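anyone seen this seq b4? input:
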Amino acid sequence: MLFRDAFKTSTRSLAHGKMRSVLTMLGIVIGIASVIILMSIGQSAQDLILNQVQGIGSNLIFIIPGGSGSGRFSAPAAAQGIVITSLVERDADAFRREPSVSAAVPEVRGQAEAVYGNNDVKVTYDGTTEQYFGVRNLPVGRGYTFTKNDVDSGAHVAVIGPGLATTLFGNLDPIGKSIRLDQVTFRVTGVLEKGGTGAFGIDQDNLVLVPLVVAQRELLGITYFSDIVVEANPAYDISFVESRITFLLRRNHSITDPNKDDFTIRTQQDALAILGNITSILTIFLAAIASISLIVGGIGIMNIMLVAVTERTREIGLRKAVGATNRDILEQFLIESVLLTFVGGMIGIALGALIVALIYFVLSTFFSIGWVFAFPLTAVILALIVSGIAGIAFGIYPARQAARKNPIEALRYE
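predicted toks r here
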């Protein structure tokens, strides 16, 4: 029998039982749609996270106190909650004198109750310099940032996140009003634009930024820094700037053995690599979970095809009696199985694309999270390949059962 004839016979058989065919395909449709949706959501989440990290600045280098051991991506001591006092003003001054460095911004960090009137909320505050806003790409939506003179004179001024402004002041204009942090009063000079989560997992919408000296002396009582953010000079390669920073820190700290570094250097490329690996693994994990429904759908197809073989036993015997070979019978039932999974896969892709588009519309319209629409071609290709393999894998057994039937016994079957 020609393949064309077998294909026509298979389509007629499937069309004869439309409802059964639709219900049989349902498992594959749901499985393929699940894979498409989860891979698309994973890709969108990955793009969103990486875009936010890149938005901080692609030429930033983060110096964190405490060594990280031999592993490039090992957590530094400071990230493990250990207090390290190795980064001080002398280090920041050395960076500022380095030609390959455009800016060096020290930071100290703490938590306190922010109070205005009867409203209070626990917040994270950053003590830093006036260069922080430009280096970290944090524009002010209302008011203005504090100045170098404010930092040098220890002025009690603050810039707050938009979420905190709403929590503390409601519909009132916060500019010019005063808040308290650990009994220290600060006058609000500006409100940041909405920014979400920034570096070190800090919620920028509820952040308080105050001059460095005030935070060190009056809030924390320290003389060291939590970290130093360096902006590399665009004229220099980022790896060269990193090597110069390493040299300056080892010289300042009298370190001769690289294994005894009391600092850790991280670049944006390091952060992007780590986040990329994490989100890729999560996407694969989600797709693997969704693929379980494909197995369930495939088992359903095999079950229905076995039932169809039993119901069409007399048809099989009649076809063999008029000259059909085992291969013809095998081919027909296998084509039916593949058609079910292929059509189900196409419907699943269309359904998945529709749901992905709906998710994007809802998130971009009603939620300001900068969701990125992603419909990876790899998900479509994977769905088509998996549906085809499922059709063959779960259809071969029923097809072989049909092909092996004895024509005489098949004709006698009631």
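The beta strands are 60-65, 101-116, 119-128, 140-143, 157-160, 178-181, 184-192, 207-211, 227-232, 263-267. The two ends are 27 Å apart (CA to CA). kinda curious what u guys think
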